[in-house]
User: Which sequence fits this backbone?
């Protein structure tokens, strides 16, 4: 399995509090992604990174920020959590979308509940 | 924006049956198409990746095909087993990865 670790795996917090999720990889892959998975919506891209300090928005980026100060770490921050951000969050990595034989690998997810 | 659709949303079959899962996408300008399996409460496991220049890819009892011109991919599972029960997702790779909502498969012993 690809070396991807998400932390924490589970978190319960209150509306209005800041939350940071961490994704750590040992594969030295260039691209890292944060998705959220909700019933009826599938996986939706929040933000992605194509290198250290290089990030871009995905489909559902409002209310989220990211940072990548090292190749191996990609952080997702909810500045002021809302109940609509209750979801399962997945981190993924890939060498590139353009290298056509390079698959995307996923972490085990973080289940976040905001009360 | 790429739209990826998977039909049916759920499928139930008896053990031993061969089955086909469908994935359609609106933009044919993709680099590859990937099929994943997701077990309840777990992450996604990559099953097969078909490059844009390929027509199909095989792994064991799984065979995935790709027809870019029609915007379709299929995942064929031969001789289904109860252990195949899971949700199967496809993802089209363009400038980003775009996912379908998945097909939930139940194989009945």
Assistant:
């Amino acid at each position: 399995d690809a070396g991807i670790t998400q932390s924490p795996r589970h978190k319960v917090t209150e509306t209005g509090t800041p939350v940071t999720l961490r994704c750590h990889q040992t594969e030295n892959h260039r691209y890292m992604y944060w998705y959220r998975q909700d019933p009826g919506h599938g996986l939706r891209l929040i933000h992605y990174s194509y290198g250290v300090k290089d990030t871009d928005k995905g489909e559902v980026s409002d209310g989220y920020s990211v940072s990548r100060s090292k190749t191996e770490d990609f952080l997702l921050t909810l500045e002021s959590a809302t109940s609509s951000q209750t979801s399962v969050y997945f981190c993924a990595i890939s060498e590139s979308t353009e290298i056509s034989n390079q698959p995307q690998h996923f972490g085990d997810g973080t289940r976040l509940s905001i009360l | 924006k790429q739209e990826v659709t998977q039909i049916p949303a759920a499928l139930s079959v008896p053990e031993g049956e061969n089955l086909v899962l469908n994935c359609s996408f609106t933009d044919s300008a993709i680099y590859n198409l990937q099929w994943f399996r997701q077990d309840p409460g777990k992450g996604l496991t990559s099953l097969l990746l078909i490059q844009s220049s390929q027509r199909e890819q095989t792994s064991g009892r799984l065979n995935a095909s790709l027809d870019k011109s029609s915007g379709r991919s299929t995942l064929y599972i031969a001789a289904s087993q109860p252990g195949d029960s899971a949700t199967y997702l496809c993802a089209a790779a363009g400038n980003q990865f775009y996912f379908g909502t998945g097909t939930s498969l139940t194989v009945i012993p």
Q: What stands out?
A: Residues 50 and 103 of chain A are 15 Å apart (CA to CA).
